[in-house]
Amino acid sequence: MVLSYQAALSILDTVANGQKIHRRDAQQQIPLQEAVGRIVASDIVSAESTPAHDTSAMDGYAIRSEATSEASERTPVRFQVRGRIAAGDDPRQVLQGLDTAEVTMSGIEPCVEIMTGAGFPEGFDACVRFEDAETVIDCDVSSTIVVTKPVPVNANRRLAGNDIRNGDVILQAGMTLQVGHLLPLSSLGIKSIAVEAKPRVAVFSTGKELLSQSYGLGRDMNGPYLTAALGEIGADVDFCGVLDDDPTSMYRHLQTVAGSGAYEVIITSGAVSKGRFDHIPDVLAQMDAEILFHGVAMRPGHPVLFALLPAGGTVDGTAKRKTAFFGLPGNPGAAAACFRFLVVPYLRALSGQTQEAPVIASLVGQVASVAQHTVSCNDKRNGTATHASSPDIFRHGVLQSTPEGMLTVQPSKDQSPAKLNPFITANCWIHLPPHGHGNPKLEAGLVECYPISAATTGFPLTSLPPT
Ligand SMILES: Nc1nc2c(c(=O)[nH]1)N[C@H]1C(S)=C(S)[C@@H](COP(=O)(O)OP(=O)(O)OC[C@H]3O[C@@H](n4cnc5c(N)ncnc54)[C@H](O)[C@@H]3O)O[C@H]1N2
Ligand code: MOO
User: Known CDD domains for this protein (predicted)?
Assistant: First the structure.
């Protein structure tokens, strides 16, 4: 029986977690502003509460709110300005020598000019904005102002510690640093951050048709696509060229790159299915690879292969890291789907990230046909029996929000894995589970969508994971 998609994911997760411990220099400390898009390596916990002091939210006058409780147009309350505090001033120094109790007794309330962000002076509990006070005697800092409305306690005052609390977990290990995170992190004085090392990945394309364009249009699409898609998710990626359909040279090139120990993952596309020139499985056997799966119940992409290449030797007494190998199918639509739904989960697990949560959208049209997508698939590993098993199906499509605020998704009309035109407009992948017929969610027309791009920076097009 062909391996289910879920079983393939579980193999990838186990292998990634096993490989994780062998990652050399797995963490790096880098400046905050260079870390956007990188994976946070360990929890960041606040060592302080912010803001450190009470501060003013407006430019105005710091007053005692109680003094304004009876204030009205007919009974305005007078205040005398007794100082001025700018952001960065120490309010204690500004108010040195001012005995608020004494001046209050003298019949006129003291107040202090205060600027937005400035530390709140002791003895005052609210800020009245400049535009809400009338200056009756204008004399620089000893002006007199009147207030004609009661000012609530704590008006325009930011209380110490009401933003971030000491001990708050600001970011969890495995999260992708987003540009928005730089604001709270910088507010805590954090200037650099420990991030996971970028996974090092080598990409090859295969096929003589890509090397000589004497007949037809043998253009490499998977090479640029996979290289860019890997770069987008933060991998350190090298495109290593196109391998000819010759097992000897294929072996030589792959062995050289694997033996260099420079890469944690090698990805090829093509030459993995049943054809006479599909040499990847044989070359891997020659390389003593442990083939963990070859053939998954998924559409497209069922010929996909995953293996571990031997490391050979030890480092500091521990076995060297093996190299993960993905043999993606050659058809570009299949290579892209396998990348998105097998390679990305592997790399996320390797970097300690949680897996993505889908966006749930209403399927436009085709609900009935989609719900009855159970098909039979060939067992690619032994190449014999046809099993009536139901594959996971991945379809590209267009996800959009309606003016009513609904999310809808329309699968591309042509899902042929060799058709590239739909990728001009497609912005997501739809994941249809196996045994769709009878699945209540699917029959209600609700499907799981993932953005085509697996990058997690920018607008996070993923719903919150269930709590
Ligand atoms: N007898 C069978 N034939 C095929 C099966 C099968 O189960 N039994 N599976 C089909 C499926 S599904 C796919 S997908 C392909 C995958 O085959 P390979 O991985 O062996 O890929 P190739 O044969 O090398 O190429 C297939 C196709 O893709 C084009 N290609 C390959 N690399 C690239 C590239 N980098 N950029 C653009 N296009 C590429 C290649 O030119 C071929 O047209 O096998 C089916 N056959
Ligand atoms: O994996 Mo092939 O899925 O259909 O092109």
Answer: MoeA
Integer distance in angstroms from the first to the last C-alpha of the chain? 35
**Using a 6 Å cutoff on CB, does residue 113 contact ligand 1?**
no
Q: Which domains does the chain have, with CATH numbers?
A: 3-26+197-350 (3.40.980.10), 55-158 (2.170.190.11), 359-451 (2.40.340.10)
* Residue nearest to ligand 2 atom 3, measured at CA: 300
Is 205 a pocket residue for ligand 1 (Cβ < 6 Å)?
yes
- Ligand 1 pocket test, candidate residues 205, 227, 331, 393, most atoms within 8 A of CB: 331
Contacts of 432 (CB under 8 A, 6+ apart): 370, 373, 392, 393, 394, 395, 442, 447
Instruction: Give per-residue pLDDT as tens, 395-423.
Output: 999 999 999 999 999 999 999 999 999 99
CA of 300 from ligand 2 middle (Å) equals 4
pTM of the predicted model as reported, rounded to 2 decimal places: 0.87
In angstroms, rounded to a whole number, what is the distance separating the alpha carbons of residues 97 and 447? 70
Q: Which of 302, 414, 419 to mutate to test the pocket of ligand 2 (most atoms within 8 A of CB)?
A: 302
Q: Average the pLDDT over each of 254-258, 273-277, 381-385, 418-422 and give the range with the smallest value.
A: 381-385
Q: Of ligand 1's atoms, which has the minimum distance to the CA of residue 328?
A: 19
Ligand 2 pocket, residue 150 CB under 6 Å: no
Q: Where are the alpha helices (DSSP H) in 339-439?
A: 344-350, 367-371
Asked if residue 203 has its Cβ within 6 Å of ligand 1, the reply is no
Q: What is the mean pLDDT of residues 299-319?
A: 81
The ipTM value here is 0.97
Question: According to DSSP H, which parts of 48-200 are helical?
Answer: 91-94, 100-105, 182-187
Contact 419 CB / ligand 2 (< 6 Å): no
